[in-house]
Amino acid sequence: MNEPVNVVVTGAAGNIAYSAIFRVAAGQMLGENQPINLMLIDIEPAMNALNGVKFELEDCAFPLLNSITTTFNLNQGFEQCDYALLIGAKPRMKGMERKDLLKDNGKIFKPQGKAINEVASKKIKVLVVGNPANTNALITMHNAPTIDPKQFTSMMRLDHDRSLAQVANKYNTNIKEVKKIIVWGNHSNTQVPDLSNAEVSGKNIKDIMNEDWYKNDFIPRIQNRGAEIIEARGSSSAASAANAAITHMRDWVSGNNDWLSIGQISNSNPFNISEDIMFSFPSICNEGSYEMIKNIEMSEILNDYIKITEKELIQERDSVLDLL
Ligand code: NAX
């Protein structure tokens, strides 16, 4: 058994967290040899509900769960934090776009970045899930200047997994047979799901793909999947988002050679994307780090799409300059 590590979950009384925390405590994120001190953060009015989550965690008798702390105090919650899932934010309601949320939710991430800077482990790995996730991750990163910017990521894994699933469905094959998918840009409806390098059962998808399906069915389906789920459920994705958060962090810690989509700081990218935005790039995960895949060409037919998502992220950043 390893020494226990400190794992923070914010928004811990919320829906996504409820689907995530128990799996984290069961070892599905950091492995079966890794004891965990769970630091559960939410706002003060949610403390009663959060205590209920704590009671249920206790009742699961997870052998890996070394301790559980519930708090609304950021410096207590982030003390020596090794891994952080920043989920807490207002969810997008029916008819709302992510940019509507930016103003309210951005303010949540500035103090969290400051607390991380002051009291967390300098090796912390941070995943921002709360929307608008990319720009919230940028705000958190800017407020934690003593920590390597590469240790801040935003969640694109749900969009990536949605893309894998749609391709597997289309070609009636198993997920494992679908490789080299990319989702570029922002976690919003401007994101760019890219199949130009994709492979199905070892064959380049271009040899079998119908261009019309790709442009008029696949891309809008992925871009608007969040809204499709809200329409059907009446609330935003929770279990699938939790799953994406767990696998994002798991792969970052344990490695994964498959192409993944990771929201990361855009500095020094070879794709001519503007610097200082949290942009999703194709990446692979080594044990404990991730690496942008740089030796690929961005398909020219995607240029217009890429410029739209880049512009949106620049606008989001420029609207929160006071929080950076
Ligand atoms: P819920 O409303 O169920 O839970 C949010 C929780 O955050 C609540 O318990 C609330 O009290 C807490 N919270 C609010 N302000 C806080 C603060 N300052 N510090 C700590 N906690 C705070 O929302 P849920 O469905 O769990 O969604 C959480 C966030 O994930 C939303 O912003 C949502 O839009 C976003 N999502 C992101 C996705 C992604 O792929 N990046 C996909 C799913 C989801 O839409």
Quick structural overview:
Helices cover 40% and strands 20% of the residues. It is α/β, with parallel strands linked by helices and 324 residues long.
Plain-language structure description:
Helix 1 packs across helix 9 (239-254) and helix 4 (98-119) runs parallel beside helix 5. The protein is built from ten helices and 14 strands. It has two domains: 5-154, Rossmann fold (3-Layer(aba) Sandwich), CATH 3.40.50; 157-323, Alpha-Beta Complex (L-2-Hydroxyisocaproate Dehydrogenase, Chain A, domain 2). The protein has a six-stranded parallel β-sheet with strand order 3-2-1-4-5-6. A three-stranded antiparallel β-sheet has the order 7-10-11. With 324 residues, it is an alpha/beta fold. The protein has helices at 15-25, 47-60, 74-77, 98-119, 133-142, 157-170, 211-223, 225-233, 239-254, 303-319; strands at 5-10, 36-41, 65-71, 83-86, 125-128, 152-154, 178-179, 182-184, 192-194, 199-200, 203-204, 256-265, 278-286, 289-292. The N and C termini lie far apart (40 Å). The model has no long low-confidence stretch (mean pLDDT 95). It binds ligand NAX. Residues 10-11, 13-17, 41-43, 46, 87-92, 108, 129-131, 133, 155, 158, 187, 226, 236-238, 241 line the site of ligand NAX.
